[in-house]
Write a structure and sequence with these properties.
The complex is a heterotrimer of chains A (about 325), B (about 550) and C (about 350). Chain A has about 325 residues and is mostly helical. In chain A, about 70% of the residues lie in helices and about 0% in strands. Chain A contains 13 helices and no strands. Chain C is mainly alpha-helical and about 350 residues long. Chain C folds into two domains: about 50 residues, no CATH class; about 220 residues, MetI-like (MetI-like fold, Orthogonal Bundle), CATH 1.10.3720.10. Chain C contains 13 helices and no strands. In chain C, helix 5 crosses helix 12 and helix 6 crosses helix 8. Classes of the chains: A mainly alpha (about 325), B alpha+beta (about 550), C mainly alpha (about 350). Chains A and C meet through helix 1, helix 2, helix 6, helix 7 and helix 9 of A and helix 1, helix 7, helix 8, helix 10 and helix 11 of C.
């Protein structure tokens, strides 16, 4: 549903809360909280610490890792297929997504039309394939907006500290108190309709999560010994930021970005389902499902199959995010 | 068909509103008659029950004087009575709130004698003063009430002769006014409702004297009406005297055609509006009745902004008309029985002439016209002239489920001759802005009206001239037909006007509007009134 | 203790005020103003006359500078007056109040179904010894957070309204009409609760006291329910608080799918009509519900979990700091298996 962003965050919050309790800290506000968070992080997995040491790809290990996880392999395949569809739709179909044969409308799925045909005899599979470009574009914009703005805010908050941090984090708190979809709807009301506008609205609704994660990671890294050491030997702030803090903090944020990818696919499709996305006949996924609603009674494939495509995409990115986050690190 | 006259000095306003509504506005009649009733007449009609009617949209207003969209008219029509009624079969104007009337020889003065004893649902009586107040308030209602305002164009004043007698005067002949008094747009509301602001009337509804009373309105969700007890002044067309049969009416907004269909099949609702072609077979199979009726007026079509390049070039406009395969659009998208447009008036409009020869599909000719106009096919399949692509944007409003697929087909068909089309959907609220501002390439819409004077309101440069048509002989012809009292002479003028519009391709008519309702087996006597909307006073459920 | 409660209350109010401000700023970005949109350009001849437009603009404050407008609206909002809906001309508060009951019924039932199923899945998955069953159950939540809610709704309609005519496809008619939308709405909270609960249950079962209890001969079921569940339920409670805001927002989509009356459908209609007062009212109301529910959970949390002591110095429980939830990962969260408890190996 529409906006798992905060929900995903929420899970983490709950887990983080649990972890903090476990740590038993009745910490003070501010830095103590960050320390607690960092502590909690270590409990679960300190794998990312000096990240630079892990750059080398261990192929046999990767092979073993994947072999034990057929689901993950499948997820990667799905994502690769979707990305290919977005950039090279001609690999899948030579049919025109906008041009149909009216006399062959409402044909069910068959060898010739894998996903059937729609109300104007257009090939639904071709529409889903070409729709991947639109949906993916919107999703990438959404994630990028959240990543850049949220990550930037978190970075500044964590790195600069003091009152800047307080102000930014209070704003983030406020953003978090507005349910994501409501925030997106308010932005759509203000910005208007269209794929890009919807993408921006979705991205902004996720800014707060990125800011929080980035800040927490930056704080964690900042206090690490090797960073302290770099600073004590007189390294400039930008060099500390660029060489130590950013690369190490980035890992978590990238995991969040992967997660947010699935979340954004759902959010974008929900908004275009509500009619705020691409104008017809553009085959954006949510729009496809939405326009199939008129024919629920006589053409089930118009809603079912594009929907399954969305589900497969989101499931896959979530599975990959999970692998990136914990499994790979903890697997020995 | 009937005809009707509605008329009115049509002001541009009418045009505006009308297009806005896309699907039909007023109208008159249908082709085959009328009363679609539901069941064998042998079963005895009985009072009681609630009729649930699923419609596809809600314009956000429950004031009959301010709505024009079919889906909203179905419900709001039940709240008010009109001075007159119109027989859907013969087109004859018959008494309703007015028991009789006189019209001056020059058709400038109309005197109505009101029925005694009529009260509004707030208990106040119907008087000549209330009628006068209504007619004077309608033109001031603003953007949404332009249908009624159009009928009252040239309004010179009302004279209250006595409590039950009112004379309405016009500055010029207005022969169509009598029929206009039978429409919902000139339905009479109480003195208290007249006082309210247009917004209050939209949101809270109005007090009428009709057989049903508004009990609850939830915008874009539902409109609930209950029976008015003690109703004793029904139209002379009503079969039953006194109260309506049904206790209550529930109009539910269900945007998806498929859900409406399934709900009718499962009995969750008793009637549905805007049946989709794809669902016809399933509905018939489940025993529901389909009732269809063609709407007169201007068919759905593409109206060019004639002042904007490349539409200033008649060859481009003509080529676009030739490139459209109307039959394919009708067969693919519209309900069975719908006819492709064969003139700028639909075939059920009085004085319609068949101009199908000028509106045939001829792709090759379209191509050669465009070639001649200097638009050459490029490698990407799009025509170019001086480097600029031949591209146009069709602006449309989502007030009928058929609009989008129809336009997507138009898009495909034009692409086939090298014309690139973009579709731009706007919200209904933006329509006045578009029509008065002229910020469009091509507009998609229709206008249901049962009098050819609609041509004047749409295409005379003396009015709003939304389509920026140049001043030509057309203006003169349109003015003459409005003033011509002789029916035969007027028909000749109307024919001339149709030819002028079609030959110059100021607009490209595409498809006529056919209203199709699905009605459950147990619903009886659900009748189309003269404008193809429903009158539910006589309807009953078994 | 009371100082703490008071402090939390003040914090909640401040956040709510800030949420109002953010919403106001976002919606004020809108170019033009709704009055002109509504009146169209009809002003030039026969639409609404210019004086009336001016009056409307004045009524909505669009002739005032932003700051003046802001304080004007804020003062009114403090009294519960969110202005008048531009498209329906009714007070926003009464529009929302009318629409609230069906939405409350929907979200309430949705949450209840979500808790019931989520809880059942988590309990069963952690209790069973069957590896395949555990894996199957634990993969359900991953699926649940990956499906678009509107699509689930359409599939249910397809199946239960069109094929088997068991439930109505739309509308507000009684409990039968509520089932399908509530089930649809329950998918997300159910999945999230199942995830959190399963994870905390496994953690709790691994704790020494649970092991001890089992060693002492307490039955598995007893250990599971009496000991582990009691400890595991707190994180689930937290997430439930977070989910309330989410549920209200998802109602926008679900009510649209099922053509149900309610706050969500009003919101969708308001966005379409650019009815800013209504959109603003709904968004602020969403924030209000979210903040209130979480405040309540914060306040009862110490009562449920004695391990969290409320500091006498006026400090709150450790788990959160401000009026809002410490959501997205105060840090540690991220490194835990991301969204789902890893089906299979991670558990």
């Amino acid at each position: 549903m529409t906006r798992p962003t905060t929900a995903v965050g929420a899970i983490r919050a709950a887990e983080g809360a649990g972890a903090a309790e476990g740590a038993g800290a009745a910490e003070a506000a501010g830095a103590a909280e960050a320390a607690g968070a960092a502590g909690a992080a270590e409990v679960v997995g300190a794998w990312r610490e000096p990240a630079t040491a892990r750059r080398r790809v261990d192929l046999p290990r990767l092979g073993r890792f994947l072999l034990h996880r057929p689901g993950l392999v499948l997820a990667v395949i799905v994502v690769v297929l979707v990305v290919l569809a977005a950039f090279w739709p001609a690999l899948y179909t030579s049919r025109d997504p906008l041009l149909g044969v009216p006399a062959r409308r409402f044909e069910g799925p068959s060898g010739q039309h894998w996903f059937g045909t729609d109300e104007l005899g257009r090939d639904v599979f071709a529409r889903v394939v070409h729709g991947a470009a639109l949906s993916l574009k919107a999703t990438i914009i959404a994630v990028a907006v959240a990543f850049v703005i949220g990550g930037g805010l978190g970075l500044v908050a964590g790195f600069v500290g003091r009152w800047v941090e307080d102000v930014i984090m209070r704003v983030v708190d406020v953003l978090l108190s507005i349910p994501g979809l409501f925030m997106s709807l308010a932005l759509v009301t203000a910005l208007g309709y269209g794929t890009v506008k919807v993408a921006i609205a979705v991205g902004i609704a996720s800014v707060a999560s990125f800011a929080r994660v980035m800040r927490a990671e930056v704080l964690k890294v900042r206090q690490a010994t090797y960073v302290e050491a770099a600073r004590s030997i007189g390294a400039r702030w930008y060099s500390v930021l660029g060489r130590h803090v950013l690369p190490n903090a980035m890992g978590s944020v990238l995991v969040l970005a992967t997660l947010d990818f699935g979340v954004s696919v759902l959010a974008v499709s929900a908004l275009s389902f509500l009619g705020y996305g691409a104008a017809p006949p553009a085959p954006e996924w949510g729009t496809l499902i939405s326009s199939g609603r008129n024919y629920l009674a006589n053409a089930w494939w118009l809603t079912t199959l594009p929907g399954l495509t969305v589900v497969a995409t989101v499931l896959s990115t979530n599975r990959i995010a999970r692998a990136l986050d914990g499994e790979w690190a903890t697997q020995r | 068909m009937n005809r009707s006259r509605q008329f009115a000095p049509a002001r541009w306003a009418v045009a505006v509103a009308a297009l806005a509504v896309g699907s039909t506005l007023l109208s008159a009649c249908g082709s085959d008659g009328s009363s679609a009733d539901g069941g064998p007449a042998s079963a005895a009609a009985r009072p009681g029950n609630t009729l649930t009617f699923a419609v596809g949209s809600d314009v956000g207003c429950v004031d009959p004087q301010q709505v024009g969209s079919n889906d909203s008219v179905y419900s709001t029509r039940q709240i008010v009575d009109s001075l007159t009624d119109q027989d859907p079969d013969t087109g004859k104007i018959v008494p309703w709130l007015a028991q009789s009337w006189e019209i001056s020889a020059d058709a400038k003065a109309f005197t109505f004698h009101l029925k005694p004893g009529v009260t509004f649902s707030d208990g106040t009586p119907l008087t000549a003063q209330v009628v006068k107040d209504n007619f004077e308030a309608i033109p001031k209602l603003g953007a949404l009430a332009q249908l009624g305002a159009g009928y009252l164009g040239g309004y010179a004043g009302g004279k209250v002769i006595d409590d039950q007698t009112i004379e309405i005067d016009f500055q010029q002949s207005n022969a169509q006014f009598l029929q206009a008094t039978s429409t919902f747009s000139l339905g009479i509301v109480s003195a208290a409702s007249v006082q309210k602001t247009p917004q209050e009337r939209c949101g809270d509804g109005v007090i009428g004297s009709g057989p049903f009373v508004l009990s609850k309105y939830v915008p874009s969700q539902s409109i609930s009406l209950r029976k008015r007890t003690g109703y004793a002044w029904g139209s002379s067309l009503f079969a039953k005297s006194g109260d309506a049969y049904l206790d209550a009416l529930e109009f539910k907004v269900v945007p998806e055609a498929g859900v409406r269909t399934s709900s009718l099949q499962s009995g969750q609702v008793d009637a549905i509006g805007a049946v989709a072609q794809a669902d016809e077979a399933a509905l018939e199979g489940s025993g529901a009745q389909l009732q269809a009726r063609a709407n007169p007026g201007v068919p759905f079509g593409l109206s060019f902004n004639n002042a904007k390049a490349p539409f200033t070039d008649p060859n481009v406009r003509k080529a676009i008309g030739l490139a459209i395969n109307r039959q394919q659009i009708v067969d693919t998208v519209f309900p069975t029985g719908t006819k492709p447009a064969t003139s700028i008036l639909s075939h059920t409009t009085p004085s319609y002439v068949d101009l199908s020869a000028s509106l045939a599909f001829d792709k090759a000719k379209a191509g050669s016209l465009l070639d001649a106009a200097g638009w050459r096919l490029g490698a990407d399949g799009i025509r170019r002239k001086d480097g600029a692509p031949l591209s146009l944007t069709i602006t449309w409003f989502a007030n009928a489920a058929t609009n989008q697929p129809a336009l997507e087909l138009v898009q495909q068909q034009l692409k086939a001759v090298g014309v690139q089309v973009e579709l731009k959907q706007l919200q209904i609220a933006q329509i006045t802005q578009i029509l008065t501002g002229g910020d469009f390439d091509v507009l998609w819409g229709n206008l249901t009206r049962a009098d050819p004077d609609i041509l004047r309101s749409q295409y005379s440069t003396k009015g709003l001239n939304t389509y920026k048509i140049p001043a030509t002989e057309l203006d003169t012809v349109l003015a003459q037909q409005a003033a011509e009292p002789d029916a035969t002479k007027r028909a000749a003028l109307v024919e001339r006007a149709q030819r002028l519009v079609v030959d110059n391709a100021y607009v490209t008519p595409v498809v006529e509007l056919e209203t199709e309702l699905g009605v459950g087996k147990n619903v009886h006597d659900l009748k189309f009134e003269a404008s193809t909307r429903v009158q539910l006073h006589d309807t009953w459920k078994s | 203790m009371w100082r703490y409660v008071l402090r939390r209350l003040v914090q909640a109010v401040v956040v709510l005020w800030a949420a109002y401000t953010v919403t106001f700023l976002v919606l004020d970005l809108l170019p033009g103003d709704p009055v002109s949109t509504l009146a169209g350009a009809g002003a030039d001849s026969q639409g609404i006359d210019p004086a009336q437009i001016a009056r409307l603009k004045h009524q909505y404050g669009f002739d005032q500078p932003v700051l003046v407008r802001y304080f004007h609206y804020l003062t009114k909002a403090l009294r519960g007056d969110f202005g008048v809906s531009v498209s329906t001309n009714r007070p926003v508060s009464s529009v929302m109040l009318d629409a609230l009951p069906p939405t409350l019924a929907l979200t309430g039932l949705g949450l209840a179904i979500g808790i019931a199923f989520g809880g059942a899945i988590a309990l069963l998955a952690t209790y069973t010894n069957q590896r395949w069953l555990r894996q199957a159950l634990l993969s359900l939540p991953s699926l649940g957070v990956s499906v678009p809610g509107f699509w689930v709704g359409l599939m249910l309609v397809q199946l239960f309204s069109f094929r088997i005519r068991l439930f109505p496809a739309f509308g507000n008619d009684g409990l039968r009409g509520l089932i399908l939308p509530a089930v649809t709405l329950a998918v997300l909270p159910g999945a999230m609760i199942a995830q959190i609960l399963a994870k905390s249950l496994l953690t709790a079962l691994a704790e020494p006291y649970a092991q001890t209890a089992q060693a002492k001969g307490a039955g598995r079921a007893r250990v599971h329910l009496r000991h582990a569940l009691r400890n595991a339920v707190l994180p689930a409670l937290t997430i439930t608080g977070v989910l309330t805001g989410q549920l209200m927002a998802n109602a926008v989509v679900i009510e649209t799918v099922f053509s149900r009356n309610g706050l969500g459908r009003i919101t969708a209609a308001a966005v379409t009509a650019q009815d800013i007062p209504v959109v603003q009212g709904v968004v602020v109301f969403g924030a209000f519900v979210f903040i209130t529910v979480n405040l309540v959970i914060d306040l009862v949390y110490p009562l449920l979990d004695p391990r969290i002591a409320v500091g006498s110095g006026g400090r709150g429980p450790s788990r959160r700091r401000s009026g809002t939830v410490d959501t997205p990962a105060g840090g540690g969260a991220l490194t835990t298996p991301a969204v789902e408890p890893a089906a299979g190996s991670a558990l």
